[in-house]
Structures are given as C-alpha cells and as structure tokens.
Amino acid sequence: MNQSLANSDAEKSNADKSNAARPEPTEESSPAREKKALHRDYVRDALDTLVEGLAPYAEDRLRDVYRDNWMRYAKSSFRRPREQAKTQGNDFEWDAHSTLTVIWDQWNAVFRQHLGHYERSLVSELREFRNRWAHQRQLNFDDTYRVLDSIERLLTAIGCDELASEIYDSKQELLEREFSDKLNEDQRRRHNQQNKWWTIGVYVICCIAIVAQMILSWQSSSYLLAGFVVVVFIFLIYQRLRTEPVVYGPRECRKCFRIIYTPDCPYCGRKNN
C-alpha cells in the first residue's frame, strides 16, 4: 500500500511538472481580435450580398435550360452525403455555398453561354475564400479586400449594378479603416520628431546659459564644473538623437495580427517559406 501511495505521489509530481513546463496559451490582444472579427463581418456581409444577386440569376439560367427539372439538376451538384442531406425536400436553399457550387458544377451546361473564363475564375476564387471563412480560418486585410473586389466584379458581370455599388462602398470603408491607422501612426511619428528637435534646442540653450554663468563667476572650480555640465548635456542630446531601439517585448504583428516576441514575425516568415 505504501508503494502504491508512493507511485501515486510520483505520478502527481510528474503531472505537476509537466503542467508547469507546458507554456500557457498566449491570449490575443483586443485590437487583434477586433480586426479579425471586422474582416469576418465584411466577408459575411459581402457573401450575403452576393447571394442576393447571384442566386436569382443562377435559378433563372437553370430554368432556361432544364425547365421544371432545374431543381433536380441543381441538387445533383452536391455529391457528398453531408451536402446531399441539406438539399433534401421540395425546396432549394440558396446560400453562398450552394450558389457557387451549382454555378461551378453546371458551368459547361448552363453558364458558359452567358459568362466567360474570367467570371469562372472569380467563382473558383470565391468558393475557396468562402470555405476559409466558413471553417474559421484567418482572413487578413488583403484577403478581405480581394473577396469584396471579386464579388463586386462578379455582380457587375451579371448586371447587378446596385448590389455591386454596395460592395464598392464596403471596399472604400475597409480601405479607410485600414489606412487611417497607418496615417495616424505617421502623424505621431512626425510629431515625435518635431518634439525631439524642440527638446534638443532647450538642452543647448540651458547648457549655454549654465556654462556662461559659471565662467562669469570667475571661480577656480567653475571650469571643471562647466566641463562636466557640457558633457552631461552632450550625453542627453545624444540619447535624444539616437534611434529608438527595437522592442522585443510582446506586440501585435501588423500582417497576421498574432502576438509575437521577436523583431520579425515567425508566422509570416513561415508562410513565405
């Protein structure tokens, strides 16, 4: 029994050590989460707008070719059991996934007479982005803007100019949100640069005034003290002019919005490789 208790204590001790050695998950900063949610909201709203214009267009083209059997051919575009289960019944539910899937699958039979290769590439691209969005994958600014731009072009190609105009407005709003932060950062940098030179000017004036007062006093120790004051002010000016050091602490990567601890983001570098 003592042996079993000893083994139990040893297992608990090893478990505690493993838990202590295991790194705690890093929580994302609030701005990063907000930006991710913002991008997902833009994509969601854009996909809803796409369905609003593309679904009636797809249904009309299917009716022109298959007449009353259009729904049967539309449902035949879904070959996976999970997808077939969603299309059971007398109605056909048009959403982003079903609309893009039907258009892609029925392209040669129905849609190639009305749309070209460029529009087909837009459908393929939007299917990929829609899957990434549905599976909670990360979408950065470039991805979000590309989704909106592709949706706008596809809606324009099928004649939905009003809906395409809504997507265009969303694109402009997304650009304003993205670049306003960069403009504000540049403005703060210029302001800090201006304050730096004002500070250096104040240092120089104070140094000259103090040294002049010491020299005019004609004391034997004034020259040594004046030299010391000059050295101190030179050091302060040097510190003010020196470039700010690279911050190695935790901060948010501006590309992937993850928390990093090194000068270069390891996640972005891994993607590039």
Outline the fold blueprint.
Layout: H1 2-21, H2 30-66, H3 70-75, H4 81-86, H5 96-105, H6 117-134, H7 141-157, H8 161-216, H9 222-241, E1 251-252, E2 259-260, H10 266-272
Antiparallel strand pairs: 1-2
Helix pairs in contact: 2-5, 2-7, 2-8, 5-6, 6-7, 7-8, 8-9
Structure description:
The protein is mainly α. It is built from 10 helices and 2 strands, in the order αααααααααββα. It has helices at 2-21, 30-66, 70-75, 81-86, 96-105, 117-134, 141-157, 161-216, 222-241, 266-272, and strands at 251-252, 259-260. A hairpin with a 6-residue loop joins strand 1 and strand 2 (259-260). Helix 8 runs antiparallel to helix 9 (222-241). The radius of gyration is 32 Å and the shape is rod-shaped.
Summarize the structure.
This protein is mainly alpha-helical and 273 residues long. It has helices spanning 2-21, 30-66, 70-75, 81-86, 96-105, 117-134, 141-157, 161-216, 222-241, 266-272, and strands at 251-252, 259-260. The chain has a two-stranded antiparallel ribbon.
- Name the strands of the widest sheet in spatial order: 1-2
Secondary-structure-based class equals mainly alpha
**Average pLDDT rating:** 77
Counted by DSSP, the helix tally is 10
Shape field: rod-shaped
Order of helices and strands: HHHHHHHHHEEH
Report the radius of gyration as a whole number of Å. 32 Å
Strand content: under 5%
Let me know the number of strands: 2
Report the span from N to C terminus: 56 Å
Fraction in helix: over 70%
- Low-pLDDT windows of residues: 1-6, 15-27
Biggest sheet: strands, sense, closure?
2 strands, antiparallel
